[in-house]
Predict the structure.
Amino acid sequence: MLQEKVGKRIKQLRNQLGISQEELAFRSNVHRTYIASVEVGKRNLTINVLEKIVNALEVTLSDFFNF
C-alpha cells in the first residue's frame, strides 16, 4: 500500500539523518504522534504536510519518491 511505503521512506530518511520523530516533528511543524502514525502507515498525508516533512528531511520530492 502506498501510505505504508511513504511511511517507511520517511522513517528511512529520518534515520539516515540521525534524528528522532520528535526532532522531525519540530522541523516540519507537525505533531510527533502524527509522524509516528505516518511512519507505520496508519495515516494519510496531505500534499501540504508531505511537503513540510520532505523539506524537514532535506530532500527533494523527486528524491523522496525514488524508492
